[in-house]
Amino acid sequence: xxxxxxxxxxxxxxxxxxxxxxxxxxxxxxxxxxxxxxxxxxxxxxxxxxxxxxxxxxxxxxxxxxxxxxxxxxxxxxxxxxxxxxxxxxxxxxxxxxxxxxxxxxxxxxxxxxxxxxxxxxxxxxxxxxxxxxxxxxxxxxxxxxxxxxxxxxxxxxxxxxxxxxxxxxxxxxxxxxxxxxxxxxxxxxxxxxxxxxxxxxxxxxxxxxxxxxxxxxxxxxxxxxxxxxxxxxxxxxxxxxxxxxxxxxxxxxxxxxxxxxxxxxxxxxxxxxxxxxxxxxxxxxxxxxxxxxxxxxxxxxxxxxxxxxxxxxxxxxxxxxxxxxxxxxxxxxxxxxxxxxxxxxxxxxxxxxxxxxxxxxxxxxxxxxxxxxxxxxxxxxxxxxxxxxxxxxxxxxxxxxxxxxxxxxxxxxxxxxxxxxxxxxxxxxxxxxxxxxxxxxxxxxxxxxxxxxxxxxxxxx
Length: 462
Ligand code: BES
Ligand code: MN
Ligand code: MN
Fold this sequence. Notes:
Bound molecules: ligand BES, manganese (II) ion
Shape: globular
Oligomer: single chain
Order of helices and strands: HHEEEEEHEHEEEEHHHHEEEHEEHEHEEH
């Protein structure tokens, strides 16, 4: 494509400033106190899509936060790319661990980002990565090089489960009709190792509640004689893994796809340095399921993790008490073929079964979603690979990610099209953590690579 590097060079400062403005709006979907900010972000996205050359842009109302939809149809006979992204962000807490306020973006250099990185909640997940697509669109329309039709669908509820988007997709099949779905909401292996995500894990998220006595008790007067819900809960949770770190829920592994020796050997070729991995996290050893490597444990294997646990007295000093209730939030990452609703049911049945007499256990399912795998011989994958080849000078490595974007499998089910996951973030960019950031190099490389995807996808579709 003509002049893409030149265009980026000329407009670089504006590209950065526009993203910074977007990052200043605290679009935290999980916290209703930020409702107006989430809505304001949708308006800002609408304006940016209009400016980028979309012909019609609308804010589509849902029962939750709106979906911003925009399109530019240049020729019905040409292929259509549907771009998906999300404008909502994770809550930024704990705030005291941020080196600068999460919604006051700053640019700082780091070892991995010598050219600077933007620090702010949402910088990488997903405002920064979503906005690369808006700027790539601007480049293609401004220079008259848009090779095909484009549809944008940017939602505001990804971080809380996308339940309203699921309804929107089911109800708007014709409107959303496309030949390929393009998403930048994942990562790449390293700055000089481009990769295309070929798999996402599914998710089942539950909350559990253990109730013992009808009130909090003196731990001396009653201790030893009644079940302590916190003791019981931690014991039950501990029993969910065996000595090999296999999950003990009956039936949990029944549908897990076992990769062949060849596939595992292929995976092992991806560059990975265990020493650096441990060093980056300040841990002496890695930990996980026996028989699998670190990269396998966090991508092709299912997991069960406690995300939060509470109950009893956690204030200053000591209080001698046996709490009436204990709680935990538990997530299970799933691999292709495991059905999240079935797994949620297996968990519920098992967890209620192992509860000892003297406590009542409740399991409340939250959200979930199916995993996803996509082949590397599709036109979409090939087009993405060619685009990376041009901008990085290297063939990208296919990589299965451990993260989840549950809506992707629903896209395939409802819209019958494949999703190409072109991520430009690094695992060390601290998404969902304090000090989230996104490299300027990555941001601009994304803007440079995306138009080439359009070009090759259109050519290969002929
Ligand atoms: N963008 C992430 C998912 C992701 C990140 C996938 C990096 C692969 C690599 C997304 O915003 C996210 O955080 N998803 C949630 C699930 C959702 C239902 C809350 C997740 O994975 O925890
Ligand atoms: Mn995301
Ligand atoms: Mn996220």
